[in-house]
Fold each of these.
Amino acid sequence: MCGSQPGVPPPSGTGPQAARPDGGRAEGRRCGGAPRRRLDTGELLVGPPKSRAGVRTVAIPSAIIPALRDHLDDFTDPEDDALIFTGARGGTLRRSNFRRAADWTKNTKKIGFPGLHFHDLRHTGNTIAASSGATLRDLMERMGHDSVRAAMIYQHRTAEADRKIANAMNDKIAEALPSN
């Protein structure tokens, strides 16, 4: 069962299993981002995140709140420890059954992104966050990274970013020049 381990502090708003935008029944869910290990008995053990940085609250864009509310209303049980994303029979999605359960290949083709991997969504979101002008520390906190090296992966150089830097330098020069 999701989040049933004694002594595991509940991460507040981590990962897809904890996204309740209105502070409703998903608040404090423990499943998002938690590593899962399959024991020899077949039991699925949900553990704490890989690092302390994995326990965090992350702000979400208000534009996605209506879709999250619809999903929660249509597909999520009302219990506080209910999973937000499940398999067809309500069970935990696992790496081994996710692509099939989500009909991933068909659905990514349908939306015009054949070959898209699930983790590409995290990479895209983190790249957008990095292009927002956030500091490296802000990005590390948001992404749940303990190391600068991991967060630097999302620091792509772009012509747009280079233009913003040049414009900011131009503005500082203009401020320093005497007015005519």
Amino acid sequence: MAARPRPASDEAREALREAMARLASGDQAALEEIYRATRVKLFGITLRILGDRKEAEDALQDVYVNLWQRADRYDPTRASPIAWLAAFARNRAIDRLRTGKVRGGAVPVEEAAPIADETPLADMLMVDAEQAAQIHKCLGALDARTQGHIRAAFFDGQTYAQLAEAADVPLGTMKSWIRRGLQRLRACLEASEAV
């Protein structure tokens, strides 16, 4: 029995874990990888706590400067890289509040701790982007007519009846075209996941 491929989220998490290990051993390129994978989430955390875009950017810069100096402190057995970095960003933002470096608009320090971070994890954002790219690639492999009908139905919100009327075909024909197109789309997506 063939082993199932690992989900892309596991691969993204592992890539981030490996980049953290490389950074701890002094690999400068790893810091850029970590930055690209985590900047959106970490900026969201600092912005939510500090309430000011410039202050949040400054706090985020502190996070990556400190990460460069302290990457060896990360312990993969205790937390995922993104959870560790999120706590790090939260702490840097709260430190800025405590030391009075922040102008008005920030939340009080005692309110910063319970602020929930509802943004998707960085690895999930990467997975979503990969999946969207694969869907569009597989859609592009369909014939122009089928591709157009699927895009109109699922991205533009047109009904099968509207599409059938516009194409001057019976409703059943339009449904069959789209159903067959979706079957080919599914097969393409499944084949790409198996690779």
Amino acid sequence: MRTLFRVTLGLLAAAISIAACATSRAGYETAPYKVIRTDGAFEIRDYPELKIATTARDKDNSSFMRLFRYIDGGNVAQEKIAMTTPVFMVEGKMAFVVPEKHKAATPAPASAEVMVDTLKARRVAVYRYSGSPSQDAEAQALAKLKAWLEQNKLTESAAAFNAYYDPPWTPAAMRRNEVLVPVTTKQ
């Protein structure tokens, strides 16, 4: 009887975790893109110009909290801005994508540590993987993507960057992470 109870409790906990993860990512607006080509965990995508809020990337959680304060009303308009996915790590900065609703009139940050900027439209090669974000995981993912680029005769046009789609409470095996490399060759 105890074993049955433990198994049932474990299954219930797993079901709740899966439901929470599925609804947490699905509940957010995602940066738009058009898939040009898919090859397993690899894709070629076209992204339009994206308006982003950025801050310097720190090793602790302060980068995220600065951006969170900005979208939680810490802006000149004191307006709440919806969270979006993914969180980009690009050029030494953490970036939140500004939702479509605020793209034309993005509130100015109240903090000098947060900037509103634009990511130019670009074609990127992408490798999707799961797990907890780490330098090792990012390096392994980038190595796989670069090998795929070479196999497919694609040329890098700018530095790689990373995208993370899930909140920290999402189990590592269920997280969606990506490494992206801007490319020049049309596919």
Amino acid sequence: MFVALGYHELNALRARKCGEAKAKGYTLVSYVSPRADHGPWLEIGENCLILDGVGIQPGVRIGDDVSLWNNTLIGHHSTIGDHCWIAAGATLGGGVVLGERSFVGLNATIGGELSIGADCFLGAATRVLKDAPPRSVFIAPATERFRLESDAFLRMTRMPALGTNREGR
């Protein structure tokens, strides 16, 4: 069986359902895309989902019930705890320890040799460069809308207008 649930309740719902399935005697399987980049060193637990374009470097250990979405990079000798969700485009440097039930958002970056505690929430585009205790939350500020509209901006920067080539056609 594969328990296909999202990151509801910071992955706790999926963790409970995996536990219930195992208690009923089910064996949980994992899926690793043939388009994921890894070698024979890959160590993963049960009920893991590893999608296209994921890069997993040597020495990485991935716990049970972990979801790695497209184009994530897990740096060498990192450890991903049980019941984690790592969204598309996230990057974990080498030697990272990610605590169980943590969520890593779109395009988030965790620097190398860091320890992120259990039950942490790292929002989209966050950049974490220091260890974080359990239940930490990181949120990156949104990019502010520029004051000019796109056509005025393109005129001022001499970029071609949307839908045209450099000659204006």
